[in-house]
Design goal:
By secondary structure, the chain is of the alpha+beta class. It is 42% helix and 23% strand. Helix 5 packs parallel to helix 8. It is found in: Cell envelope.
Length: 385
Amino acid sequence: MIFKRAVKILAIIFVFITIVTPLFSQRKFDIQGTGKQILDGEIIYLSYRNEGRYILDSTFVKNNSFKFEGIIENIPIRASLYRNQNSTHNYDFIYDRLSLYLEEGIISVQSMDSLNNARISGTAVNNTFQLLQERLALLEKERLSIKDPDYFSEEERKDTALVNKNRSLLEANYYKQCDVQLAFAKEFSNSYVSLDLVNNIARNNKYNHLAEEVFNLLSDSLLQLPKAAVTKEFFLNKNKVRIGSIAPEFEMNDRFGRNIKLSNYRGKYLLLDFWASWCLPCRQEHPNLIAVYDDFKGANFDILSVSIDSKKDKWLNAIIEDGLIWSQISDLKASNGEVYQKYGIGTIPCNFLLDPHGKVIAKDLKGQDLTDKIKEVVNMQANMY
């Protein structure tokens, strides 16, 4: 009888431990914000993702202060604060916002004016993140001084020289920031901020190999985290088709229903281009592709574009709108398509330059880099004969 009772008590304790243990793995965050020009009655929004769920919270400013509390798991979560603008309405037009990390402890947000200029402190990850912001400050000031062509008026958009100039300046600024971020990640190889930086930069085709080098220098504790596993898988996919390897064969129907094989293009230089109708950077690159095609199509060069669209009408309309006259193919399976998986496509636009034997000789060329490379290989071929 006593034995049975003891067993029952032990079972109850086991169940209790099983239920309660996950709770102890959770952590409470506490954001305390102040700002002399953040006025009473204004609304501060907090948004983040926790275990796959999108969470949006809000609070009113009182005595030039605001506060948020919540529960998260052990791993820090990147979050954003917005002043008077709900991020679910139109994220692109939120003017006063601040990024930070949700983690256990009191997170201090202090500002003399706006959220944009606030300082974050109080917890380990946020202290490191604030240091990163300080190192990026001059470049961020430069970025804000360049008007994004996406926000140009109709009249400004008519000035194609200005549009191209501003796009080039913004792209150059972005890569400068990437350089600073990768150097920072290398220096602070034990910080979760660094894992986040590498994970984000890895999505940029031009910087993928540099991001992988820094990723391999991160601490063992960071490399054991779920985000590191995702990043590692991304690198493995990106390396499926390397420079110097033969591009994997595939076949797919074009927009007219005709079967197209990659091997049909053997004997000429080929730009294998991956894009989608919904991808704005892809479509912004189309004028450059058109110029390259017009300049070199008679010089043993061609382009084959693979769309990762899922809706045929949107794909076909984009082809017409952008004036694309070379072969366009798609299986309309988006990222589930066999070719997408076979080539390890992670982000678009993405391209592979193949030589006449089908060997990859360059990857992810854009703008002037693409023009220069095509000119180089075409001229080199001409000099051989």
